[in-house]
Amino acid sequence: MTVDEPQARKAFHVAIVGGGPCGLVCAVYLIRAGIKVDVFESASQFGEVGAGIWLGPNALRALDVMGLKDAIIAHADGGVPALTPFTFVSAKKGHQLIHSDKTLGIHRAECLEALSELLDPAVIHFNKRCTYVSQENSPRPVMHFKDGTSFEADIVIGTDGIKSLLRTVAYRALFQFNDVRRMDMQLDLSRHPHCFVGMDKHIITVPIQGGKILNVVIFYTDRSLSGSVEIPPNQWVATASKEEVLGKFSDCGPDVQKLLSLIKTCHKWCIHAIDPPLKSFVKGHIALVGDSAHAMCPHLGSGFGQGIEDALILCRLLTHPTTDAFNVQEALQVYDRVCRPRANMVLSRSTWAGEVYEALPCKVDDNAEFETLRSSLAVLWEPVWHHDLHKHLATAVDMLGMPDSEG
Questions:
Q1: Under a CB-based contact definition with an 8 Å cutoff, are residues 323 and 276 in contact?
Q2: Distance, C-alpha 94 to centroid of its chain
Q3: H-run or E-run covering 40
Q4: Nearest partner of 59 among 366, 377, 303, 335, judged by Cα
Q5: pLDDT 10s digits, 244-267
Q6: Which residues pair with 213 in a beta bridge?
């Protein structure tokens, strides 16, 4: 085991529901601080669920403060990642350049591998799907699992959440780059991510596995639906036909048509987000972190980063010298007051980003509309990435012990 030797143990026990990146970040940090932790994961093992995780500057700062940045980056595909261009082009004929920014990513499986190596396997319990948590008839919350077992702890941190469904769907396909090159496309998609901006649709392409594979995520919004919709869980992921995708993108330019013509099979994924935003992330001794608190559309790539900010502030409050088994609820209330407004802002902004990506002007010579689009793209990440994390953390710590901290 490579985890640091724990400090003097605190007299309370934390259970984490969900073995995703945010859950494991919390586990590593709390264990290093001397807090007893158990992690409960519904899957039978950690696996390749999901695709890439974007690491904005705010996420890197939080991971650095938690002492986890180097371990995660060391597992990145191709070694230490660097900021790479993220280019926005028109999905229409000509594929004119609209805007270019920079970003950084890592595969979710690599992140999980890096974090799991820092934990004693004995603290991770697989095949444990939590069905509900009760805290009415016990001084401590009790988790109940699908297999009929239960587990009691002083604090439960939920990190496994979602799930509301929006009117946008995403199709995902993987192409061999040798096949992409044979299509003789105008744009070179091999070096960095691109976004094809359309009307009620957009496409994200990301080269992975050292440039051998092109990961293509194809978004389409059905404007005939209003707000969020309910779809049965067994329909959240479905096989989609090539004809279905091509039919939705028939108005796009030649590079889009060539790319989509490579589809043999692809899967259609429902886009999940919490809608409307939660009014509290805390109830009693239960705290929601990451997706369980503010699952957001993937359009800003900021869900992971926001979850890491949550984890840092919650863990710092729980490990504060003044926090003990008798006042942990006060620490949880401070976490809610500090983290919820910002997290819900990023959630709403992520939804807006998807609207921007699908706001291509109808006319290619509409300069005013293109300038509006460029201006929106230029400021998308400003309040997300350029955030004073240390000030935010200091505010949370200062709130501990204040008379109105539970107000």
A1: no
A2: 33
A3: strand 36-40
A4: 303
A5: 999 999 999 999 999 999 999 888
A6: 176, 208
> Does the pLDDT of residue 48 top 60, yes or no?
no
| Residue range 363-368: mean pLDDT, rounded | 81
Angle ∠(339,343,349) on CA atoms, nearest 5: 155
Q: What is the CA radius of gyration of the chain?
A: 22
Cα(167)–Cα(328) distance, rounded to whole angstroms?
Answer: 39
Residues, the chain: 407
Alpha-carbon torsion, ordered 304, 305, 309, 312, to 10 deg: 70
Asked whether the beta carbons of 119 and 30 are under 8 A apart, the reply is no
- For residue 37, pLDDT beyond 60: yes
107 bridge partner residues: 52
Question: Which residue bears the tokens 């603290």?
Answer: 123
Alpha-carbon distance of 226 to 285, in angstroms, equals 36
Straight-line distance from the first to the last Cα atom of the chain, in angstroms, rounded to the nearest whole number: 42
Q: What is the pLDDT of residue 162?
A: 60
> CA–CA separation, 20 vs 145, rounded Å?
18
| Residue found under tokens 């990440």 | 381
Helical segments of 84-169, H only: 108-116
Considering only CA atoms, which of 22, 20, 25, 14 is closest in space to residue 41? 20
What predicted TM-score, i.e. pTM, was given to this entire model? 0.88
Instruction: Report whether 214 contacts 205 (CB < 8 A).
Output: yes
Amino acid at 122: A
For position 45, what pLDDT does the model report?
Answer: 86
Geometric angle at alpha carbon 111, from 109 and 113, rounded to 5°: 70
Contact call for residues 219 and 355 (beta carbons, < 8 A): no
User: Alpha-carbon distance 241 to 389, whole Å?
Assistant: 45
- Name the phi and psi angles at 233, rounded to 5: -55, -30
Exposed, middle or buried, 259 (CB in 10 Å: 0-12/13-18/19+)?
buried
Half-sphere exposure of 260 (CA within 13 A, CB side): 27
Amino acid symbol at 64: D
Angle, alpha carbons 226-194-380 (nearest 5°): 55
Phi, psi of 168 (to 5 degrees): -95, 140
Give the tens place of pLDDT for each residue, 284-313. 999 999 999 999 998 998 999 999 999 999
Contact by Cβ (8 Å): 42, 160: yes
DSSP 319: T
